[in-house]
Design brief:
The structure is a single chain. This protein is of the alpha+beta class. It has 2 domains: 8-43 and 135-228, no CATH class; 59-101, no CATH class. It contains 9 helices and 6 strands. Strands 1, 2, 3 and 4 form a 4-stranded antiparallel beta sheet that branches. Strands 5-6 form a two-stranded antiparallel sheet.
Length: 229
């Protein structure tokens, strides 16, 4: 049966087949922090607090705002007529805004020790103020994850929404973290903390992991028909 998400032991297999310490740490941070690949690749030495065992993550998101060239009313992507002045919109005004959001996340001591050894051994690249941990491009990081998954003998996962098979990517490690967290604690407080940890703006986005991880629907359905037998 094809799985929808990675199990903890499968992620450990990926880490175990990684040849380089850098690659082991890349897998481990994606899994133990549950961050987006862009966030992990943006982590620098100065973002790590070895005393508090935390990592500060900065998330950059570019939002595009569309507006009417006549009256400035905000438009949706599908707008054909301006709801403000009523003119037919032939060409919209586009404005891009950058949003920087930071969150400080706890990290387990074992991973922090690995980070400390990696930093002390001169693993981080570059001489800039931030001194990034990995110095990898997004595509390079994705290739590392894909290759380690193949070496570990892991099969593609099925998309729970479409049923299509998808390869193992950095985001699948983020999914695995979230599902594992929900299995450990699916209370209201647990979901709120997971939302904060993942950096979701809406709890609705976080709740999808409860749907994937839980067996509530099956238990509910079985209970209905067991009562009739």
């Amino acid at each position: 049966m094809t799985e929808t998400y990675l199990e903890p032991e499968e992620v450990e297999k990926m880490e175990g087949v990684a040849i380089y310490v850098r690659d082991k740490l890349l897998i481990r941070l994606l899994w133990r922090l549950g961050c987006r690949i862009s966030e992990v690749l943006g982590v620098g030495v100065r973002d790590i607090d070895f005393n508090q065992n935390t990592v500060t993550i900065e998330h950059l998101k570019i939002r595009v705002r569309l507006s009417c060239p006549q009256c400035g009313t905000r438009l949706s992507k599908t707008s054909r007529f301006c709801p403000g002045c009523g003119i037919r919109v032939e060409k919209v005004v586009t404005e891009e805004k950058e949003h920087h959001r930071k969150r400080t996340l706890p990290l387990d001591k074992e991973t922090m020790n690995m980070l400390r050894q990696y930093v002390d051994a001169g693993g981080p690249v570059g001489n800039g103020e931030k001194k990034p941990l990995f110095g990898l491009k997004r595509r390079q990081a994705s290739n590392i994850i894909r290759e380690c998954a193949a070496k570990a003998g892991l099969r593609p996962l099925v998309n729970p929404d479409t049923g299509e098979l998808r390869g193992i990517s950095p985001h699948r490690l983020r999914d695995a973290f979230a599902v594992n967290a929900v299995k450990a604690d699916d209370s209201g407080d647990g979901l709120r903390l997971l939302q904060e940890h993942l950096g979701h703006k809406s709890i609705v986005t976080t709740m999808k992991y409860r749907k994937i991880a839980g067996e509530e629907h099956r238990e509910w359905y079985d209970k209905i028909w067991n009562q009739r037998n």
